[in-house]
Amino acid sequence: MTRTIYYTASSLDGFLATSDHSLDWLLSQPVSEQLQGEMEGLTTRFGAQLMGASTYQWLLDNEDLLTNPEKWPYPTPSWVMTHRDLPAVPGADIRFAQGDVAAVHAEMVAAAGDKDVWVVGGGDLAGQLADAGLLDEIEVSYAPVTLGSGMPLLPRRIDLELREVRHDAPFVLARLEVKKP
Ligand SMILES: NC(=O)c1ccc[n+]([C@@H]2O[C@H](COP(=O)([O-])OP(=O)(O)OC[C@H]3O[C@@H](n4cnc5c(N)ncnc54)[C@H](OP(=O)(O)O)[C@@H]3O)[C@@H](O)[C@H]2O)c1
Predict the structure, then answer these.
(1) Residue 66: Cβ within 10 Å count
(2) In the prediction, which pLDDT does 181 show?
(3) Mean pLDDT over residues 87-95, rounded?
(4) Domains located in the chain, CATH noted
(5) Contact, 22 vs 154, CB < 8 A?
(6) Does residue 150 have its Cβ closer than 6 Å to ligand 1?
(7) How far apart are CA 110 and CA 86, in angstroms?
(8) Ligand 1 in contact with 140 (CB < 6 A)?
(9) What is the pLDDT of residue 176?
(10) 122 close to 156: Cβ distance less than 8 angstroms
């Protein structure tokens, strides 16, 4: 059965990015060969991706995707939630949507087939899914850095059960199940 997983990395104090959307604090961390392999495998592990406008904009800017569309990382369909008229990466399967995440989620599950759905971020979008009872799991890699402020990992209360914790220096990786009523 398809599961919906918020797979992400965070600062120790619970931020996905700085307030100006920088990931320098994360991208400057060393990554082991094993973790690198796990991250590269994400695009085949998941059958669909969901992200908000800021995360998509970060990808556009960071990879200069409108000039280099071949750098678009996802081979499976991606949904971008936005009220804006954002440009699509040429040749990429990107579907822009807005409003109710439940309707979008149903389309994603259908597209994912027997694979899981990846919630890439941001935190409020993951929270919208949790509010709708549609988020199953959170997998988060904590980097050994605090930011003090920034874009939050998950800006609402969600009750979770810790399923697994491991470390792959310098990261602490936690897998948590979302408790459902
Ligand atoms: N650390 C990591 O591994 C990691 C992972 C993912 C992301 N990030 C970074 O974290 C930051 C996240 O930014 P963010 O907190 O602003 O979150 P975001 O989800 O990327 O973007 C939020 C925006 O998405 C749009 N949106 C969200 N839900 C919507 C809905 N239901 N309908 C229509 N539009 C909707 C809205 O934009 P508009 O209304 O303006 O269109 C909203 O302001 C980014 O800098 C990203 O690069 C880091």
Answers:
(1) 12
(2) 77
(3) 98
(4) 4-178 (3.40.430.10)
(5) no
(6) no
(7) 24
(8) no
(9) 98
(10) no
